[in-house]
Amino acid sequence: MMTSQEQHNDFEVEQHLRADTSGRYRAELRVRLGDMHDACTLARRQLHDRDTYRRLEAGMAAVGVAVTVLDLMPPAGAAREYGSGGQGA
Q1: Are residues 4 and 63 in contact, defined by beta-carbon separation less than 8 angstroms?
Q2: Distance CA 77, CA 34 (A)
Q3: I want to staple 25 with a disulfide (CB 3.0 to 4.6 A). Which of 20, 43, 53, 67 is the partner?
Q4: How many CB atoms lie within 10 A of CB 37?
Q5: Contact 33, 66 (CB under 8 A)
Q6: What is the pLDDT of residue 15?
Q7: Which of 69, 82, 68, 88 has its CA nearest to residue 14?
């Protein structure tokens, strides 16, 4: 069961992305995710027991999903433009 602190932290990244009008936070997050993926890839090349290998695979999958979510999330301000009769209307 998640604590209220854990639930709060889950939404912190989303809040930062929604407020990121410059795109800087999104770019930094993408770099960090890329670094995590690279670290998992390097670690996976080493010999590991089955459990560790599965954890590395799961980590790579989680990073991949995070990148997909990041790519699908509209840039800051896009929802406001759509709702105000912009190009999406």
Answers
A1: no
A2: 25
A3: 20
A4: 17
A5: yes
A6: 87
A7: 69
Q: Which two tokens stand for residue 89?
A: 């209307």
| Residue given tokens 């840039």 in the structure block | 75
**C-alpha angle 25-55-68 in degrees, rounded to nearest 5:** 35
Q: What is the pLDDT along the chain (89 residues), one digit of tens a residue?
A: 545 554 555 578 888 888 888 989 999 999 999 999 999 999 989 988 999 999 999 999 999 999 999 999 888 776 555 444 545 44
Q: Which two tokens stand for residue 31?
A: 């770099």
Residues listed for the chain: 89
Q: How far apart are CA 89 and CA 81, in angstroms?
A: 9
